[in-house]
Amino acid sequence: MNVEAVRERLSAVSDPDLGDDIVSLGLVNAIDVDDDAGVVRISLALGAPFSPAESAIADSVRDALSDTGYDVDLSARIASPISPDEDVLPGVQNVIAVASGKGGVGKSTVAVNLAAGLSKLGARVGLFDADVYGPNVPRMVDAEQAPQATGDDTIVPPEQYGMKLMSMAFLVGDDDPVIWRGPMVHKLLTQLVEDVQWGELDYLVLDLPPGTGDTQLTVLQTLPLTGAVIVTTPQDVAVDDARKGLEMFGKHDTDVLGIVENMSTFRCPDCGSNHDIFGAGGGKAFAAENDLPFLGALPLDPDVRTGGDGGEPVVLEAGETADAFRVMTENVADMAGVVRRREASRQSQ
Q: Annotated Gene Ontology MF terms (predicted)?
């Protein structure tokens, strides 16, 4: 067995999302055949840890070499296109912004459950509550421990459910309003991002405030976003505002990973019938209209509200609603992987 023989076998492994084999796409970084140890070491350009789609590609690589008598040792790496001097988050592989065009559609609920769901999959996750004027994340994960300052003026974030957390709510009183102009918001967000000891993370999930204002502009200009998740309800009014958010990301050349339709339907606990309180299919139609992935429909369920108020993300529980959030989480991870692999393939050509 030599490198070329391994490469030939890998040329039979396809990436279904990018539509070609992983060798032609340039997704094989390196191959090392260690005859003495009986090991083939392969580095793949996979960028979304615990993504089911990328796990399937890795499994296909192992299957392609399963009859060789060699053990297969896989690693994953995609080089950052940002120089080390300019990278404000050098240890973070993926930065995912969760956004909405208007308030009240459950954006923070989606962000919290997305982060908790990724952590449950096994990923190293940070959750940054960038909603400066209405920070809710600490309550939604029952985080009582405050960040700790260090001697070198950095901040050690608290952890909950395996996630590192940062929020404006840690820095002000429970009932204190934040009445700041744009430059102050920009300064705070920049400081929190750069001074927090995020460490090595697979995903940093950002809960953005609703709308298209100063905070969003700061994030788009400062952070290396992998992509954005846009949250809407099926209601036409919410979809209209989600469209503005989509345009904002488009103007800043930020990939949109897809659309989440929250409060999709309500199942009556008494009669078992479904009720489309906010309409039906608006988010899915919006995704199709803009040729974007539909990441999932999340039901209107009292358990979601109970989990948010009680600090227990519903994605960590059992049941149909938890399953819907888990599917959404896996779809987001898969789409982050598509973005990263597409960029890696482009760089390799």
A: 4 iron, 4 sulfur cluster binding; ATP binding; ATP hydrolysis activity; ATP-dependent FeS chaperone activity; metal ion binding
260 is in an annotated binding site: no
Rg of the chain on CA atoms, in Å: 21
pLDDT in tens, 266-310: 877 777 778 887 778 889 999 999 999 999 999 998 899 999 999
105 marked among binding-site residues = yes
Tell me 50's DSSP state. Answer: T
Residue 202 contacts residue 250 (beta carbons within 8 Å)? no
Its CATH architecture, for the domain 92-348, is 3-Layer(aba) Sandwich (3.40)
Would strands 266-267 and 159-160 be described as parallel, antiparallel, or unpaired? unpaired
What are all long-range contacts of 325-328, with beta carbons under 8 Å and residues at least 24 apart? 325/113, 325/114, 325/117, 325/296, 325/298, 326/117, 326/120, 327/296, 328/110, 328/113, 328/114, 328/117, 328/260, 328/295, 328/296, 328/298
Whether residue 12 contacts residue 23, with contact meaning beta carbons closer than 8 Å, is answered with no
Residue 6's contacts (CB-CB under 8 Å, 6 or more residues apart) are 31, 33, 40, 42, 65
155: tokens are 């901040």
Segment among 39-53, 98-112, 183-197, 280-294 with least mean pLDDT: 183-197
Count other C-beta atoms under 10 Å from residue 88's C-beta.
Answer: 13
* Average pLDDT value for residue range 237-255: 87
pLDDT confidence tier of residue 146, bands split at 50, 70 and 90: confident
The response to whether 103 counts as a known ligand-binding position is yes
Domain map (residue ranges) of the chain:
3-76, 92-348
244 is in an annotated binding site: no
Check the annotation: does 104 bind a ligand: yes
Task: Report the predicted TM-score, pTM, of the whole model to 2 decimal places.
Answer: 0.92
DSSP helix/strand/coil, 21? strand
Main-chain phi, psi angles of 248, to 5 degrees: -60, -50
102 is in an annotated binding site: yes
* pLDDT reading at 11 higher than 80: yes
Mean pLDDT of 217-240: 88
| Amino acid type, 232 | T
Position 208 scores a pLDDT of 87
User: Could you name the CATH architecture of 3-76?
Assistant: 2-Layer Sandwich (3.30)
Instruction: Give pLDDT, residue 182.
Output: 60
